[in-house]
Amino acid sequence: MVRARQRDIAQAAGVSEATVSRVLNDHPGVSEATRQSVMVALDVLGFERPTYLRRKSVGLVGLILPELTNPIFPAFAQLISTALARRGFIPILCTQTAGGVHEDDYVQQLLDHGVAGMINISGLHADSDSKPGRYFRLRELGMPLVLVNGAIDGLDVPTIANDDVAAIEMAIAHLTELGHVRIGLAAGPDRFIPVIRKLWGFRGAMARHTSLSRAEIDDLIVHELFTVDGGAAAAARLLDRGVTAIAAASDLMALGAVRAVRARGLRVPQDVSVIGYDDSPLIAFSDPPLTTIRQNVTAMSETAVNSLVEIIGGSDSRAKEFTFRPELVVRGSTAPCVVQARERHTPRARGLRAAKVSDERP
Amino acid sequence: MVRARQRDIAQAAGVSEATVSRVLNDHPGVSEATRQSVMVALDVLGFERPTYLRRKSVGLVGLILPELTNPIFPAFAQLISTALARRGFIPILCTQTAGGVHEDDYVQQLLDHGVAGMINISGLHADSDSKPGRYFRLRELGMPLVLVNGAIDGLDVPTIANDDVAAIEMAIAHLTELGHVRIGLAAGPDRFIPVIRKLWGFRGAMARHTSLSRAEIDDLIVHELFTVDGGAAAAARLLDRGVTAIAAASDLMALGAVRAVRARGLRVPQDVSVIGYDDSPLIAFSDPPLTTIRQNVTAMSETAVNSLVEIIGGSDSRAKEFTFRPELVVRGSTAPCVVQARERHTPRARGLRAAKVSDERP
């Protein structure tokens, strides 16, 4: 390796060129942390690692994801893979696709190939309609398992979850502080546990922060798929009901909501506020930059890997839910409510106003 | 399954409820295409598949990716996984991370687990400095292999590549039509084959479309990492050199370039045009919506899988490069050049103008 490159590596790793040379030539007197920094610098800059710096695998771990289209799942995959690699495990990513490989088939393959454990993100355990037996069978086989964003009652495994109730409460508190009352919830399908939790949080927060009745609040909830198109469809239905703000169940749904608002000739956030959920990678670059509720993907990924590695190492697996507090990230898609602007534009609001006007007539 | 759900599935699959019932109960008289549509609808809507609709695996295929942070890689992973599943193969995703599992270690694991073949995207085969021996050894073992976006001279494997030369030519033709002459290239590290091809294309296109000398053109090329920060750093250096437009080697670099332009108080596209490369998922939602060069990820993924499946099925593996033509996607980050605006803002341009003024003095 030429000296120019050693200089680049030293700079990237924040160590001296002499240290880089010692690491590359496997000389003694280098701490494990320094060795790791140099290895990361080699990888980031794209140089090949010396053979001795290759990791010895202590086993395979299956990581099951529902899909890779929503950018929150690649974010989980990247962080969990990195954390597993650091502990010496080789991650096997199993991503499902519509019409593709089924979760149970992936699990069977992972069993056939003797994985040391499995981490399952937003799988069938997040679907309240799915049969929980598959997970109890895995535990009977002694397979170390960690579930992320979902839960199976009575199963002795750690569950890592974002606090969905707190998440929607933060969104509603933010929007009501901006003066919004008619806030629509663009939710995903109502079978999913995170959705059920958000519904619960939405009803509670709306009851506390507004004077709307339970029936009025329920009228502001619509269920569509967790996609851009799903968000657009949900927003269209909510705009018909006279909302001035939309809380979406994912950033993708929020992008769809922004599109639907603009399709009516309205502006985000001047006419309608939109808040997302996830804080997906690159979402800060959206137009407008999306206000959203951040899942603590980094802490969740670290905890999932630590919990799994502990069980693989011999700790008893226990039913324990690690709940992570989300954060409100205020960017440019939410603004103070200007109700008049809404009333001019939505049929329902026009209808309500017309009704009100006629009420005023004696 | 209740009737309401059969109706949803029928609607999503575009078939009758009676057909859905026949598929779910494995009755005869249903075409494979219809069965597939119903299965996709089940998956999209999140219902469980009947056991008989599970796929029988014909083998595992390793899919090696450099990372998942750049959204183009999850896009490839999703499409290739789907195409493999449709052919009965279970994909194993191997994603690298800085300081994580090395490509060679993934390959060894895949060999140990008896995969039927491997698809490698932008791996060490894309790095002109890496040793090609690892790929020749794989072929000596008889392992079916397809390489995407990179190439190894003399290796008897199909290579799937975007036409990088055509891509940069499209970008330069678009920008010069808008009146830009001082166009900067924010390129990735110069070891990578796609970068080397883009450099070649850039020099040729700039020589054809402008009257700049070879030295002046070379002065408009900077190399940084393929990241948002890399793009911002490259753009800062290019703005110092008085560019009015920036062609970035990835959409992530383009987002960084937009950020760097704005950090100088300039606007995109009114003051500086920026064009990306990839057409990553969701990039159309960026601010401004990014003009970019689209990689035909769908066709490339299909071809990679078809080529691999043919080799697994017994066809001879041959050195053949499938090159895919990219497309210019014009959105909102490019606009006609207004040189005066540039000259006011960039030190180099100010220097050039000052020099010109002093030349005019006799």
Keywords:
434 Repressor (Amino-terminal Domain), six-stranded parallel sheet, 362 residues, 46% helix, Rossmann fold, four-stranded parallel sheet, homodimer
Summary of the model, kept short:
The structure is a homodimer of 362-residue chains. By secondary structure, chain A is α/β, with parallel strands linked by helices. Chain A is built from 14 helices and 12 strands.
Explain what you see:
Two copies of one chain form a homodimer. Chain A is an alpha/beta fold. The first copy, chain A, folds into three domains: 3-55, lambda repressor-like DNA-binding domains (434 Repressor (Amino-terminal Domain)), CATH 1.10.260.40; 59-162 and 297-327, Response regulator (Rossmann fold, 3-Layer(aba) Sandwich); 164-296 and 329-352, Response regulator (Rossmann fold), CATH 3.40.50.2300. Helix content of chain A is 46%, strand content 15%. In chain A, helix 7 (164-177) runs parallel beside helix 8 (193-209) and helix 13 (339-345) crosses helix 14 (347-360). The radius of gyration of chain A is 25 Å and the shape is globular. In chain A, 50% of the residues are buried.
